Amino acid sequence: QGWTEDFDWYILTVVNPDGFAYTKSTDRLWRKTRTPGTLCKGTDANRNFDFHWRGGGSSTNPCSETYSGPGVFSEPETQAIRDF
């Protein structure tokens, strides 16, 4: 029982469809969203939530793989999860 009975579980299979498609067509190791930027595309969606935003491990450099974005929930993908 425990975990399976005490919680509601929601499984989100693909929350970054543009990034996922890009991994299939161009760059297999791509991890960011595909939002156009001034210098480089995308934000690391894992670091775009408001919990410890811009904390350890994130970057303010838009070209970094760990770029946390210009603000919390700046990406449509993270906004959709937040609103869900």
From TrEMBL:
Pfam families: Peptidase_M14. GO terms for molecular function: metallocarboxypeptidase activity; zinc ion binding. It comes from the Eukaryota. InterPro entries: Peptidase_M14. Its cofactor is Zn(2+). GO terms for biological process: proteolysis. This is Peptidase M14 domain-containing protein. Residues 1-84 form the Peptidase M14 domain. One of its GO terms (cellular component) is extracellular space. Residues 60-84 are annotated as: Disordered. PANTHER family: FI01817P-RELATED, PROTEASE FAMILY M14 CARBOXYPEPTIDASE A,B. Transmembrane segments: none annotated. Belongs to the peptidase M14 family.
